[in-house]
Amino acid sequence: MTTTTAPITPITPAQKRIAEQLVQGLTNSEIASEEHLSRGTVSSHVRDVRQNLHCPPRSSRPFLAHALLMHRQVAVPSLSPLQPSFTADEAQKRLLKAIAEHSSPADIARAAKIALADVKPLTEDLVRAAGATDATQLVGWGHALGLLGEGGQDTTDLPAASEGAAR
């Protein structure tokens, strides 16, 4: 998933606030509005989070959300907004995993075993079927459902996010 095996640098409390909203599917502009920050400050925090987790600089938001959840830097989001009738079939689970683990459409297509031209429409269909706002929120819900990593994990037993974060 990440490009190096070096230990991650835990995110700071400010980065965690931004990351929690990113995992919920909010855009940088929406996060900036919620946090009363400039969009540039939010972008800077997102860039720093990518660096802390050793994610490629241009990695997608779903990829970053997956890294945050896999490294237990934020809590798994609530499933309350999930469509109650939503169940993913095997092809949808494969697509969800591909979206979480890859950033480029070509890599997603290969991993999901679908045509490149089908990545965008099938992703949009999956997001819509789940009732998610976007693929980033869908990845968070995938973690909560146990489809990506552990389901229902919380971060209460983890070291504080700022421990070891030297800036």
Q: What is the count of β-strands?
A: 0
Order of SSEs: HHHHHHHH
Helix content: 40-55%
Distance between the termini: 25 Å
Low-confidence stretches: 152-167
What is the average of the pLDDT values?
A: 86
Give the overall silhouette.
globular
Structure class:
mainly alpha
Strand content: under 5%
Largest sheet composition: none
Radius of gyration: 15 Å
Compact description:
By secondary structure, the chain is mostly helical. The protein has helices spanning 13-23, 28-35, 39-52, 61-70, 90-101, 105-112, 119-130, 135-144.
Please describe what this structure looks like.
Mean pLDDT is 86; it is low at 152-167. 37% of the residues are buried. By secondary structure, the protein is an all-alpha fold. Helix 1 (13-23) packs across helix 3, helix 2 (28-35) packs across helix 3 (39-52) and helix 4 (61-70) packs parallel to helix 8 (135-144). The radius of gyration is 15 Å and the shape is globular. The chain starts with 12 loop residues before the first helix and ends in a 23-residue tail after the last helix. It has helices spanning 13-23, 28-35, 39-52, 61-70, 90-101, 105-112, 119-130, 135-144. It contains eight helices and no strands.
Task: Give the topology, please.
Layout: H1 13-23, H2 28-35, H3 39-52, H4 61-70, H5 90-101, H6 105-112, H7 119-130, H8 135-144
Helix pairs in contact: 1-3, 2-3, 4-8, 5-6, 5-7, 5-8
Label this structure with key terms.
globular, disordered C terminus, 167 residues, 8 helices, 0% strand, single chain, mainly alpha
